[in-house]
Queue: 2 jobs
Job 1
Amino acid sequence: MKIFKGLLSVVLLVNLSMAAQYVIKFSHVVAADTPKGKAAVYFAKRLEELSHGKIKVEVYPNAQLGSDKVVLRKMKFNAVQMAAPTFSKFTGLVPQLGLFDLPFLFKDENHLHKVLDGKVGQKLMDMVTKKGYVALAYWDNGFKVMTDDKRPLIKPEDCKGLKFRVMSSKVLIEQFKALGAIPVVLPFSEVYSALQQGVVNGQENTISNIYTKKFYEVQRYMTITNHGYLGYLVVMSKKFWNRLPNDLKADVKEAIKEATAKERVWAKELNNEQLNEIKAYAKKTGKLEIDYLTPQQRALWVKKLRAIYPEFYSTIGKNLIEEAIKEGE
């Protein structure tokens, strides 16, 4: 009986592998248990179900196939079929994606998703698709908050004179200059030690990044500004996409739609859980003060930082910015 069951399992595996007409290698650089990692696995399972095994998806987390930059090059030649890099990886190709770096562009999560899922989001995906990738969906990391080691950041002028680590982004550099702060471009891997050693006074990041990298342990203050957004763009190799028949393309679109809905829920849940962990640390140790902006205080930040928008009309597009703002009205 055991031999029979073993043979049956082998036959089923062989049949499944024979049924798979297409194989997708889905690369990402984070752990499998993150919202992005879980969504990639969900997408893989759902697409195999929808395609009745015609498409097999292999998920490679933790940069197993290389960094996002390396993988994007491989995708041009169809050596890798899918990835979900941050928007910053595409701004060299599509400068308009710098839209998401603009501070206080979005009122809240609802406004953000209206933009991502509406005309503005589609226009940006079309721009990426013209550059040799097929843009499929936007996945959330979360909104950014600010931390520092000197004083609570309640008013915009509280940032004056402080050194803030930023990603390599012209928008983010101008954001901190407008606040009277000193932007310092550093790789993400160097942020913890730079904060610890006082090379910089503060930084901006999502709750999940602050929590997993323990930035809160080497900072004195954290303000829940929710001033900017970090997200991922899920893309597919154009060469691979063009090989797929229309019915399987429809399966990919449905699977990614369902996975996107799941990912956004998981991202929100994780950020809430990790913020609670940071709050527990603050209460237990007394080493961290967490502040929230009132609507009146937030309005002052919005007025101060939206003043930099005209500087990016030529690269991002005035109409695109205004259209994104209008989505929240």
Job 2
Amino acid sequence: MTPQPPVPSSTLVTERAAIERLLDANLDRAREGLRVLEDWARFALDRPDLVARSKDLRQRLGRLHQERYKLARHTATDPAAGMAHPAQTERQDGASVLAANAGRVQEALRVLEEFGRLEDPGLAAEAAAIRYALYDLEVDLLQAGRGGDERRVLLRRCHLYLVTSPVSGLETVVAAALAAGVRLVQYRAKPGDAPTLAGAPPDDRRRFEQASALRLLCHRHGALFLVNDRIDLALAVGADGVHLGQGDLPPAVARRLLGPDRLIGRSTHRLEDLHQAVADGCDYIGVGPVNATPTKPGREPVGLAYVTQAAAECPLPFFAIGGIDLANLSAVRRAGAQRVAVVRAITESEHPGAAAAALLEGLEAES
């Protein structure tokens, strides 16, 4: 094997200087972005706890911003200095500025993590730890700015509701649906779903991990995230609310536990159930199952007649659910449903993003 010639010392010096400039630039970028988050928590949210968390991350990076990195800075020769992007002018509210800066910090931290391994292993390790802490901080900041009124406004804008099933690659499926425009997602993982939970037992740790990841995905897309049945899990992951079946805790109990700002949905199978859900203070209604579906084995379908009754009498947003797909969507819409919830039509599609886009287009065309 022919020995490789040594790297010239001048090349090593040049590379080291470039890495030091790179680390300096990304430390600046991360610290500036964290200051934006900190000030939003302070002046807009009035949340000292979130201010303290943001400030802690910023100061941890500040302690690692060595003088030699600052001395390597040379803005005049940076070809990207002052470069802007059109997306910066498209941010319409504080939440979008918040999300953009959180993303900016995460990207800078990743660069620090990768190149820090070559020059400063301590910085690399701290950048990785801060990046993971920032994932939770971002969601908590977004959650703190989303009150009950905003959630209910968002709910009324949603016409397609994705209810998950325990398929392999669930995060990828939900991400594709969100990218296609879905803005309402329910995490549903029942004990009976064990054989299909991607080989993992349906224990609470697994549910918590999945729900946490989906909550982060949804909130980054400005989508609502709800949990089926489990009020404790909804609170643990900071969900926007819960969906309750007829056999679950009464909505009044759920409201007492969740507080006034989170959403509560209720499955109904007949007009009497619907009227009771309205009286109980629910925020939206599930109407179905319209068709027979393996998601609800043994449940007799209610057909389109109940959808028509709901359209005539329900004062709340309601979602027709049960075996609905692109083939029967028009019939469901003609029966009076402006909103639908689907499971397999997206989760079991070979192309979930395209399936979600087609359903959204069908809903718009029929409205």
